[in-house]
Amino acid sequence: MTIFDSNSTLITELSLRQPSEFISDVDGDLTDSRWWSEIELESANQQVNRDDNKKNNKRTLVFFMIPGNPGVIDYYTPFLGRVFEECQRGECRVVVVGGHTWDTESLSSSPNDQKLYTLKDQIGHKIKCLDKLREKFTTSEDERGPRFILCGHSIGAFICSEILRARPNHGIEQIYALHPTLQHIANTPNGKKLRLLFCERSRNLAASFIASVRWLLGPTKLKTLVWILTWQSEPALSVTADKLLSHGQILKNALRMAETEMMEVLDLDQEFYQANLEKYVFYFGKNDGWVPVEHYEDLVRRFPESKIYLCDEGTKHAFVVDHSEIIAGKVVSWIRESGLLG
Predict the structure, then answer these.
(1) Strand 9-12 relative to strand 20-26: parallel, antiparallel, unpaired?
(2) Would you say 155 and 69 are in contact if contact means Cβ atoms under 8 Å apart?
(3) What is the distance between the alpha carbons of residues 179 and 76, in angstroms, rounded to a whole number?
(4) How crowded is residue 285: how many other Cβ atoms within 10 Å of its Cβ?
(5) Average of per-residue pLDDT across 13-22
């Protein structure tokens, strides 16, 4: 199956809540992605579904998830699996694209050859991914191309807005901004507490420390240590220990991107959001160190007519660790209300 291009590598292919796992080359950048779609997975039914869509004049709907930093997309599998399961399977493709990934060769090369990606790099990368998705799902029978729902978590919400700014005529129908970091991240409680961790010296020390601890303890004991320190449950615990902390370079990239977020996410572009309010749903948490309640109150003052919600169910900023089902339920309700499923 071709995903972004003919160089995509299929890692796993499952169904229902478990996605197909791919690493693709997007204009020279290896890219980790997960796909949920019965139309794609069940090749025997592929032509039948396409014929039905032709008869009903339906355009492909793509739910495109942009994760927050650190961009480890396996955190989002339970959340997106629920979204796909509830959204009339076969009607909607669900795609999550992570940050840039690395193969074994690049991770073992000289540190001087390992690029650190900035927020601007990630924005450009996600724009290219949208272009590839649009190309993939635009057919000779229907040249309108697919319709998109963009869903961004944390800095992913900011990236979604930048995608819309760059591609206003590419079929982006809705944007769901979950615990969104849209303005002045450096001045938030967590931004103030952690800013020193993002500088180059701190990044290098943190990456070396993680590499040393992993070497000394081994994967099993490292996972136990992560559990003691974070109290994370599965599957998030395994993702943290086996993916996020699998190599110092991954942590270094997350911290470098965070540094650029502090510098580049500043004043809210009120004119842009005012012009596109009908596309947005904003969802904030009550106790969020990255997105304080003042940010929610600021948006309500600016855009009183918009769909801006404050969570009353205690979800955390990192909702994919403990509250995937709750947020998935919210998202599914917004998709159904939008009428995009037909």
Answers:
(1) antiparallel
(2) yes
(3) 14
(4) 23
(5) 65
Highest mean pLDDT among 40-49, 80-89, 237-246: 237-246
Tens of pLDDT, residue by residue over 269-325, are 999 999 999 999 999 999 999 999 999 999 999 999 999 999 999 999 999 999 999
**Percentage of residues in the chain with pLDDT exceeding 70?**
83
Between helices 119-136 and 155-166, what is the axis angle to 10°?
60
pLDDT 10s digits, 52-97 = 444 455 688 999 999 999 988 999 999 999 999 887 654 678 888 8
Amino acid identity at 58:
K
One-letter-per-residue 3-state SS of 263-323: HHCCCCCHHHHHHCHHHEEEEECCCCCCCCHHHHHHHHHHCCCCEEEECCCCCCCCHHHHC
Residues near 168 by beta carbon (within 8 Å), at least 6 away in sequence: none
CA dihedral 33, 38, 41, 45 (to 10 degrees): -150
Beta partners for 8? Answer: none
Phi, psi of 177 (to 5 degrees): -105, 105
Q: What is residue 199's DSSP assignment?
A: S
Tokens in use for 78? 């339970």
pTM of the predicted model, to two decimals?
A: 0.89
Contact 71, 97 (CB under 8 A): no
Neighbour tally for 86: CB within 10 Å = 16
pLDDT digits (tens, 9 = 90+) for 62-71: 999 999 999 8
Structure-token pair, residue 18: 């478990």
What single DSSP character describes residue 5?
A: S
Name which of 280, 26, 279 is nearest 131 in CA terms: 26
Residue 190: both structure tokens together:
């967590």
